[in-house]
Design brief:
It comes from Lentzea rhizosphaerae. By secondary structure, the protein is an alpha+beta fold. The protein contains six helices and nine strands; from the N terminus they run βααβββαββββαααβ.
Length: 210
């Protein structure tokens, strides 16, 4: 597995339905979104990316405003504990559901969180082999159950001498979260009606603190 991402989805409805509709980016609204989130930064446009541009380096942001959905890819969403996400990102939801998803394959890190439209944290879960379970708030969602109970496929792949700290692989859970929450995967099974991630345009920006 070689996946890295750090993403925020602001959704008025089902994320998967918007992505499957081949939505067109609203560039003026996207620029305004980034300006609101980075008010103390100089913001310079760079080349477009796509939903594959989900792990920008520090100082870059990829974002898009679509009808019913806004996406922001930023390292500011890559912290160990989703509960530590800066409040300005939560305020931006303004009556929409906010989803955070982050994975880092080098360290087997995965995190996700969901905030309700009123800003209440519904679920936060993050972990890595080096740190253990970092955040575990709220009731697990159905897609988590197989993994938290012990993923049989993963356990069968372990040798007797393996001492992996979890009964599942964090990135497997991360991919399951992508499928359940957003209707796509970066790795694994691709379904017939999955969105074409390369066609989901995200505008790129350099954000430099003043």
């Amino acid at each position: 597995m070689g996946t890295k991402d750090w993403m925020l989805f602001y959704a008025s409805g089902e994320v998967s339905e918007v992505l499957r509709s081949s939505p067109k980016i609203d560039r003026e609204a996207t620029a305004a979104l980034v300006a609101r989130l980075y008010p103390s930064c100089d913001i310079r446009p760079i080349a477009d990316g796509s939903l594959y541009s989900s792990n920008p380096p520090k100082g870059e942001v990829y974002a898009a405003v679509f009808p019913g959905l806004s996406i922001v890819c930023t390292q500011d969403a890559a912290g160990d504990a989703p509960t530590e996400l800066d409040a300005r990102f939560i305020r931006e939801a303004a009556g929409r559901t906010l989803y955070l998803h982050a994975m880092h394959s080098v360290v087997d890190f995965f995190a996700y969180a969901i905030w309700e439209p009123d800003g209440t944290l519904r679920r936060s879960f993050s972990l890595s082999p080096d740190s253990g379970v970092i955040s575990d708030v709220g009731t697990p969602l159905p897609f988590e159950e197989k993994y938290l109970a012990g993923d049989p496929e993963f356990l069968e792949s372990l040798d007797d001498e393996d001492e992996y700290p979890f009964r599942f692989h964090p990135l497997d859970l991360g991919e399951a979260a992508l499928r359940a929450l957003f209707g796509f995967n970066y790795e694994g099974v691709i379904e017939d009606d999955d969105p074409d991630l390369e066609e989901i345009v995200l505008a790129g920006y350099v954000v430099t603190p003043r």
